[in-house]
Every structure is written in C-alpha cells, then in structure tokens.
Write a structure and sequence with these properties.
With about 350 residues, the chain is an alpha+beta fold. The chain folds into two domains: about 5-155; about 165-335, Endonuclease - Pi-scei, Chain A, domain 1 (Beta Complex). It is built from five helices and 23 strands. It has helices at about 15-25, 75-90, 100-110, 125-130, 145-155; strands at about 5-10, 30-35, 50, 55-60, 65-70, 90-95, 115-120, 140-145, 165-190, 195-205, 205-210, 225-230, 235, 245, 255-260, 265, 270-285, 290-295, 300-305, 310, 320-325, 330, 335. Strands 9, 10, 11, 12, 13, 14, 15, 16, 17, 18 and 21 form an eleven-stranded antiparallel β-sheet that branches. The chain starts with 5 loop residues before the first strand and ends in an 8-residue tail after the last strand.
C-alpha cells in the first residue's frame, strides 16, 4: 500500500489542533492535504492541497478541477455515483454501512479513465480501501481530527518504513555448533518469495538476512509464509525502522521483509513457533569487528550471500554474506544518540 494515494483532511476544531496534526503528518512524510475553505495552511514545496466542501473537493493549485462528493448507502445511490464519476472523470464517495463489497463492485464497472475516491473518518478502513480488488481506490481521503489520528493512520499502513538501508558484505569468520536452545519461527500472513527474508542479528548494529522457507528440500515441503529467524535474543528489524527482540514479537506485529539490496515491505505476524533445536553460532567480520547470529542447524535455514542464498549447514570461513549496518545505539528499539558497545 502507498501513502501517495492518501489525502489527509484536517478537520480539527481549532486552528492550533489542525496545525499540530499537520506538523505530525509532515514529520511522517505525508504530502497531500485537504481543509475546509479558510482553514488551510501555506503548502510546503512538495505538497498538494485541496479545498474540502460538503459536496466536492477542488485543487488549490493548478487547474481548478473539482471532484464531486457523494454519500452512498444503497445500490441506487452507487449507480448515481458511478454516473457522476463517468461524467466528471472522478467521484468521491463516503460509504454508509457496507463499504468493501460496494467498492469492489464500483471498481469493476467504472467507466474507463474515471477515478474513484473514498472518504472515511476511520483510519482502520484505509487498508481495505487501498487494497480492494488488488487495485483499490485511486485516492483515499482520511479525516484527521488530531495528531493521534495521524499516528493511528501510520500504524495501519503496510508500506515499509525501514529504509533506506545500507547494505554491505561481511566475511564468515566462524561456524560453530552450540547445542540445543530455543529458536523462533516467524509465520507471516503473507506469501514470501524465496529470496525475501527478515533481518536479524545479535547486535542491532549489523543484521543478517535470513531467507524465507519458500524453497523447501527433497525431504520437506516449502513454507512460503515462514522465516526460521533464530534465537529469541536476536534483534529483528520492524517495518517502522525500530528493532525488537524475537522473544517480544506477538501476533499482528509488522516485521520488515525484503530482498537483499531491494526495497522491502511490511508483513503481519500470524503465528510464532518456539521450539528447542540444535543451533549454530555464525560469526562474520565487518569493518574490523565480528557480528554474530544464532540460527537453527538445518538445511532449510538460509542466509543471503553475495552468490545467493546459502544453507547454514554449508557455510564455511571466507563465505561472504549480505548484511545491513544500522545505528547500534537504541532504547526500546528506537535509535538514540549515545555511545553503545555490544559484544
């Protein structure tokens, strides 16, 4: 999902409240806003603003094209909204009652070239509006009464926020069996590609890319939703750029998933499985220091290397792994400006 299709309508009762919501939204890199006539603010260079009336939206810059704004609670009203959209090239709809099935129907029968906007007061309705029929509404207007609503909107978005990442190479310095201990399987609610994976490590300053189990073996079936992430103490990178310990993950959390060197995305944790298994300690040198990761000793656990995904059972000294360097100093998973040494 993408915030480029979102318009934040600032509907706070006071100007100070609307200004606080705008400041929060700008910090989170939202760029499109709407306000009632006389209630807007000077736009920043990269922003688009719209006037927000009871019956239409109109741009405050460039061509003054307007988008009619209708309320739909019945099939008859939906048919009228689609006719208005065909005549004007776009229509904004506020759903009363059912909202997902009607939107899917509207997207499937709309006139070629016409846009459908959705207007909502509820941030939790945004993902369905953006994802209906795998296409979603062309624009989603979210009414924002206060800064807390901006934060709630940010939490609902599935677009990744962890980047940009600084990818590098680390050279394997040791591979040691360390006996049995707990390891964490992260089962997501999404299907992952074989070269997608999660970023984990014993130090938050250097994370290893553990590939998904979308590729099985001759003795096991693929599990394309799963990452065998490693020991409970490992850090894992979340979609918002913070880190958690694997032991802290719960159902519904949003870890970051990516291919090495490519933009990533957020997925939801659907289930965690923690079991005792034989483990390997893998050390790799990067920038004069050694970073480590503890993973299950199994052929289906693969770390991403410069030549592809490598089963951890086949890693040897000198193998080169893809890693991500991050600020090591963190408090409760959030980067802080202080000196921290992790060993």
């Amino acid at each position: 999902m993408t915030r480029e299709r979102l318009i934040l309508a600032l509907v706070g009762r006071s100007r100070a409240g609307r200004a606080a919501s705008l400041a929060r939204a700008r910090r989170l890199r939202f760029h499109d806003f709407a306000a009632r006539p006389g209630q807007g603010f000077p736009p920043a260079p990269d922003e688009r603003w719209y006037r927000y009336r009871d019956d239409r939206f109109s741009s405050t810059a460039g061509p003054r094209a307007s988008v009619p704004f209708l309320t739909v609670r019945s099939p008859v009203q939906l048919s009228r909204a689609l006719r208005v959209g065909a005549e004007n090239g776009a229509v904004a709809i506020r759903w009363i009652g059912s909202r997902v099935i009607p939107l899917e129907g509207a997207l499937s029968v709309r006139s070629p070239g016409s846009s459908i906007w959705v207007v909502t007061r509820r941030t939790e309705e945004v993902p369905a509006a953006l994802g209906a029929l795998e296409v979603g509404a062309d624009r989603v207007v979210v009414e924002i009464p206060d800064p807390a609503s901006v934060d709630a909107l940010e939490r609902t978005l599935e677009g990744a926020r962890a980047g940009p990442l600084r990818w590098s190479t680390a050279v394997v310095s040791r591979v040691e069996p360390v006996g049995a201990s707990e390891r964490v399987l992260v089962d997501s609610t999404s299907l992952l590609a074989p070269n997608e994976g999660m970023l984990v490590g014993s130090s938050a300053g250097l994370l290893f890319h553990v590939a998904s189990e979308a590729e099985g073996s001759e003795f096991s079936r693929p599990r394309p939703f799963r990452v065998n992430a490693g020991s409970p103490h490992l850090y894992i990178l979340m979609a918002d750029g913070t880190t958690r310990y694997l032991s802290e993950l719960v159902t519904g959390d949003r870890p970051f998933v990516c291919r090495p060197g490519r933009p990533g995305r957020a997925v939801r944790v659907g289930r965690l499985k923690i079991e005792r298994r034989p483990m390997l300690l893998i050390g790799a040198r990067h920038g004069g220091t050694e970073a480590t990761v503890f993973v299950q000793e199994a052929e289906t656990v693969r770390l991403s290397g410069v030549s592809g995904r490598e089963p951890v059972t086949e890693l040897r000294r000198g193998h080169r792994l893809r890693v991500v360097a991050l600020p090591a100093a963190r408090h409760l998973g959030v980067v802080v400006n202080e000196q921290v040494e992790e060993r």
